[in-house]
Amino acid sequence: MGNFNIVNDKIYIQYRVLGKRKTFNTKLVATKENMEKAKLIKKGIEERIEIKNKEVKIRNILKSVGFSNDTTKDITIEKATDIYKYKLELTSKSYQTRFWVAMNNFYKLVPRNIKVSKVTYEHSLRFVKLLMDQKLSIITVRSYYDHVKVLFQFLVKNKCLLTSPFTNEVLPRKTKKTIVVFGKDMLEDILSTAKESDDTFYNILSMLLLTGLRPNDLLRIKVGQINFAERRIHLRISKTNKEFNMPMSQSLFAFITDNMKYIMNLDSEQLIFPDYTVPRLGRRFRRLKKKLGIKEKFVFSLKTFRRNFATHYARGLNIQDVAFLLSHDEIETTRSFYASMIVDDVRKKMDKFDEKQDHE
After folding, report:
1. Phi then psi dihedrals of residue 264, to 5 deg
2. Strand, helix or coil for residue 324
3. Same domain? 285 vs 223
């Protein structure tokens, strides 16, 4: 898709985006070693072009079936979901599965042939009640509600509705839980045991710790998404379907180049962890916990690596930066990690005060 061009002993990459010719200056001197780096940069460019082409293709599909910004159509819910499935193709399989589960629940309230304009705020209230009556967790209720809400936001954006009947004010409040992280000794035991059993397993757990990514997003990373020259990883977050350029810290950069050199020989479309799925990773981690005698079944999980990542950087970065790293839309979601830091700081102050009193 792209070609290399050497000008004044510097490596340039030439490629096309939507028919337009582009040139990228790698700022690398043309050496054998730098050509390997340039190949990775090229893979990253090709990955972004592929995403752009897919988005354009889906926009064209939506337009061909009657969706465009200059039309207003009062279609049925069933027709709307039939069209929305093209947009869903950009999301993960797990996201798509949750969406259809949410819609099947919503269809218990409204017929499939109801016009989208006839869906009201009352329907959103009844939908929450229906989910709550099933004794689902608050997190699951909010997840299913959000999936249907995103569909209606899609309809508003494409001029099928003026406003969405789904608002967040009807949702039950999230239960605020104390942030639990791996202790230093426990984390060292986990990583050393993982390395003894399987280098790939060790690499995955280490990457979860160094990136703060959810397992699903980490396992979806392809080689072409890693840009070594600019030290960033281009992602599409499965939970929100948003694109995100994650900066590579020096620690993360060093870990990949030291422990994952095999990716240099992979094609840009290949996954960096091709043999792993989230269920398989979860099973291996549960077996590892059992081997180490970690009995807290639901306290320490794969998500705990993300909490360790956030807590680590909450000690040195401001809340906006940590929210960015976690790809949080709202800072309030990130604030809980700072609450944990406040507890630690207050405890240290208490200890100093007690020591002072003991010496008086």
Report:
1. -65, -25
2. helix
3. yes
Contact status, residue 68 vs residue 43, Cβ threshold 8 Å: no
The residue type at 241: N
Please tell me the total count of domains within the chain.
Answer: 3
Do residues 190 and 295 both lie within one domain? yes
Q: How far from 78 is each of 8, 114, 150, 151, 165, CA to CA, in Å?
A: 59, 8, 15, 11, 17
Distance CA 119, CA 160 (A): 12
- Residue pair 69/159 in contact (Cβ under 8 Å)? The answer is yes
Residue 5 is inside which H or E element, if any? strand 3-7
User: What's the rounded Cα separation, in Å, for the pair 256 and 308?
Assistant: 19
Beta carbons of 234 and 243 less than 8 angstroms apart: yes
Which range of residues forms the domain containing residue 159? Answer: 77-170
The mean predicted confidence, pLDDT, of the chain is: 84
Q: Where are the alpha helices (DSSP H) in 220-330?
A: 250-259, 278-292, 303-314, 319-325
14 and 94: one domain? no
Closest CA to 33 of 174, 229, 234: 229
User: What is the predicted pLDDT for the residue at 26?
Assistant: 86
Q: The whole model's pTM is what?
A: 0.56
Contact 220, 268 (CB under 8 A): no
Q: Can you read off the two tokens belonging to residue 81?
A: 């979901």
Q: What is the pLDDT of residues 155-188, one digit of tens each?
A: 888 778 888 999 877 777 665 567 788 989 999 9
Cα 333 from Cα 337, distance rounded (Å): 9
